[in-house]
Amino acid sequence: MLSIEPELEFYDIKSGFFNFFVPEDLTKLNAEAKKHIRKKIPESGLMETARKEALQTVLIMEKIVETIGWKLDYTALKIPQQKIDQLEN
Prior knowledge:
Elements: H1 23-44, H2 46-67, H3 81-88
């Protein structure tokens, strides 16, 4: 799941000479910006980078707990052996 924070809603904006926005405009701009970011993420490679870093973290944790004689059970993560082999090399 991807989360883009913060979730903003604008309610009160001081009127000023150069302030041409109303609160609804800013709330809509915020929503459109998040929509644009979500659209661009797949082509950015961000999700693949995050997956690799998460898997590397799990492997590091596995090595740490092995040093004290424990075994890390990460079977619920369903990590393909091919991915583990790629990272260990």
